[in-house]
Design goal:
Two copies of one chain form a homodimer. By secondary structure, chain A is an alpha+beta fold. Chain A has six helices and ten strands; from the N terminus they run ββββαββαβαβααββα. The longest helix of chain A is centred in the middle third of the chain and has 18 residues. The interface between A and B is large, with 62 and 62 residues. Strand 1 of chain A pairs antiparallel with strand 1 of chain B, so a sheet runs across the interface. Chain A binds a DNA duplex through helix 5.
Chain lengths: 245, 245
DNA sequence: TTAAAATTGTGTCAAAATAACACGTTTCGA
DNA sequence: TCGAAACGTGTTATTTTGACACAATTTTAA
């Protein structure tokens, strides 16, 4: 039966649970960004021990008097300078030897941000860089595993929920959105079917403006219907009609 | 910048991370079972402090030298007597005041088991009982929230992946499977469309036997094609064609 | 012995969604 | 001004879905 339910029998408020180990609780973040062409990761070139000089994810420790949710937001703010970042919990990583210095359980989450909106200075202060997924370096500890799983989860979630919008600027074109989906799934999509699929969700509002940065026909700039986005979030559609099925 | 990345600069193996809090790490399990008619929860009538006498989920603490995965299996074994139980991680719960005695982070998971296969004696030894979801009592701490989320996740997952089979005996009929899905989604389904949908997945193998317990026409007993189940697990189908969309 | 009731297996058909593909328009610059 | 590149919209055959009907099996009661 080992240590299951090993509470000690006491009503005194300041007695503690017996026999069980206290350990460090880390929060590690996989931050995805999109620059219009490629999917990128915000990674840290470590200038501190352990594994100084190597690449890793951004992380931090949970404080004694800090809610988990709050700590996650704090870490994302420290890294990107952004508040109200979209993130989801990924998984807890807890192998005994995953951190060489001390037993540490990591609760891992992934975040999606608009790469242009985020504070580049803050990232530089953290020695962080945007790295294309395809040039992904080897990471310390079990961080490679974390990124693999985050990418898998991103694909899973983006196929069913409109989270891809979190990676785009406020106003965007349908071809830009398509490029994002092609980057996420690393596969080409049919332009016409994609457009029909996206428009059928009625999540996009035509701003009346056009993308002036184009060298050819200027595409319509849309924005997200925030109300519908919130309310339809869990009513899953297939956003991936062509591939990944 | 608070405590983000507050590693101390040292190469000595036995130095520890500075300044950060160590805390208890609990593992709480939501165990779903199916008796042929209703979806049930395996709950504990607490005969220990804190909150003695009240209902709660089964849980335990992570040990110093124990992998997270291993601890989860240990706790499920202690509760059900089963090994190789199907489970998924749900979410980490970490509000500062969620446990009155001491700061405890709970990593929560939900498990699916065949209610008849599990060891009733072991459950009794833990003071655990199968409670119909509809008669769910109030639970201690944040356990209500955990169950709510687990049910939501179960519905989400079962709509896309064939995890429902984990709740059934090895041999089962299509009407039994339909009752399970109706219990999970709390909604009636069309018998004919359901059958067509399930058979189209080619996941079922006709055993040649029939359900002898029936008072009317005996339904065909199927078993799961384990090979296909494993390989197709992540190639999501809609298992819920009628409702929940 | 037979008819009724309950349950199971299979089939039909119209509507909707999907996948593959075609055509015309806008924009810039050669 | 003409061609190339990118954008917006349309067509059509096929597949999938949702709403049904009907026949077969088994037990029970008339």
């Amino acid at each position: 039966m080992s240590q299951t339910q090993n509470y000690i029998d006491t009503t005194a408020m300041f007695r503690k649970y017996a026999h069980s180990a206290r350990m460090l609780l880390a929060l590690d973040s996989i931050v995805f960004g999109f620059d219009g062409e490629e999917l990128k990761l915000l990674l840290i070139k470590r200038n501190f021990e352990p594994e100084k000089g190597k690449w890793s994810l951004m992380g931090g420790f949970l404080e004694e008097n800090e809610d988990l949710e709050l700590a996650t937001n704090r870490i994302l703010y420290d890294l990107t300078g952004l508040k109200d970042v979209y993130f989801e919990e990924l998984k807890a990583f807890g192998k005994v030897d995953r951190d060489p210095l001390e037993r540490t359980i990591s609760i891992c989450f992934f975040a999606l941000i608009n790469i242009h909106a985020h504070d580049q200075d803050l990232a530089k202060a953290q020695n962080a860089f945007w790295i294309s997924l395809k040039d992904r370096p080897n990471l310390v500890f079990d961080h490679n595993e974390m990124v693999d799983l985050a990418l898998e989860r991103l694909r899973y979630r983006a196929a069913l929920h409109p989270i891809g919008f979190e990676l785009l600027p406020e106003k965007f074109t349908i071809p830009q959105l398509q490029k994002l989906y092609e980057a996420i799934y690393d596969t080409p999509l049919d332009r016409r079917n994609f457009s029909r699929k996206i428009l059928s969700t009625k999540l996009l509002i035509d701003t009346g403006e056009k993308n002036e940065n184009s060298a050819t026909k200027k595409a319509i700039l849309y924005k997200l219907d925030q109300t519908k986005y919130q309310s339809q979030f869990n009513a899953f559609h297939y956003f991936m009609s062509d591939a990944s099925r």
